[in-house]
Each structure stands twice: as structure tokens, then as C-alpha cells.
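FIELD: query
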Amino acid sequence: MKKLSVITIDFWNTLLSNLGSERRQQLRESALKEVLLRENVPFDETHFATAFDAVLEQFKHIWFTEHRTLLTNEITALLLQQFNCKPTKESLDYLTHTFSVGVVQDPPELLPQVEKSLEILSKDFSLGVVSDTYYSPGKQLRKVLKHHDIIKYFSSFSFSDETGVSKPHQKAFTVVLNNFKSSVKESLHIGDIRKTDILGANVLNMDSILYTGNPTPFTTSLDDTSILPTYECTSWDDIVSTIYQQYSPK
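FIELD: result
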């Protein structure tokens, strides 16, 4: 059996659901409306959805072509540009803060079997988080992990807003591997997006598991079946079984 020392795991839609909650979106839209009113910018609330979609497309373009993610203040600035708003620093800071903490005010749900699986795996392997970020920076995502009492299973983190790169950039993974002093040959990545999680692992010649247990319209839209993982699992129970069948703890 192949020796395994380190497992890196994606955050969104692998550990926790990436389905945006209605309450979180309402908080962000309310803050946007407040800022536009404060800045005396005319707006039509029916334009909000279009504005959010336009910013997401700009985000995705940079994400996939430059292998980095925009910071929250860059995202909120782009959103305000959709309304031809040139905000004061105070207004931009307020909107940025509201967008970033929404994930803590209304935390996403853990996916099925995650907590039990982490407890099992952490006994034999070093676990790290490798995650790209959008509205919520790594600082806030750590709070979500703490809220669900699973942060204790991880001892290294790579969030794109902190490293300056996003998956599939090699640095997104090597930050964690270097912290653990582990080689790619003794490491495994688990994630749900082929273009980022699986491609990044493949570039490093690192084994990977594609998690397909929680398909969403967003992740499905990013699917590229030409990018192949080492293994594909439909549940966390399946992930744990696969790991212990194919690997032995170093």
C-alpha cells in the first residue's frame, strides 16, 4: 500500500455547503442599499441580481486566468461600480465588512459525515485546509470551522486571500505541504472542482479524490471531465473507506 502522511481538504462544498443562504444575501443586499443611499446614488433594486452576477463573472475570469481570487474589498468596489458609485473609504469599508462577516453571522452547514470522518482521519494523518475565497476571507472561514468545532482537526491552512494565489496554482498546496514537511508523494488532496482542486493536484503529481456528494449548479457549471482525479467518491464515508483501502499511514 502507498504511504500517506498529509491530507489537504477544500472548504466550500467539500467540508461545508456552498449554497448561499437567503439571510446572508439579504444582509449583503441591505448593506449595498444603505451605501447607495448614503452616497446619494440612484438605483433600482431589480438591478441587484444582475449586478451580483456581473461581478461573479469578473471574479471567475480572474480566478481561472490569473489563478488568484479578488479580495473582499475589490469585490465590493466592483459591485459599486455597477451602479457608477465612487464610495468614500468609510462606505467601502462598511460594505466590505458586511460582506465578509455574513458567513459567520449565518454559518453554512457541515456536509454529511464530515465531522465523524475528520475525527477518524486526524488520528492517522496530518490535515490541512486548502481553499479559494470569495466574499469571506480566511479569517472568517476559520471562525466557521471553529463554530462547527472542527478546526481542532486541522493544523495548517492555505486560503487564497492570504497566499495571493488560488488553486490550481502549486503554491496553494505547497504552503501546507511545506508546513508539514511532507512530499507530494505522501500527500492527498480532496476537493469538488476539477478545474481547481484536481488540476492543481495533478500538476504536482499529487493524488486526489474528487468529492461529488453535493453537486450544485455552480460546481456543475465548472465541471471539466477531461481532468481526472485519482479516485472519485460520492460521500465522506466513501472517502474514508477509499483512503484506508488504498493508503497506509506513514
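FIELD: remark
The chain has two domains: 2-18+108-249, 22-105.
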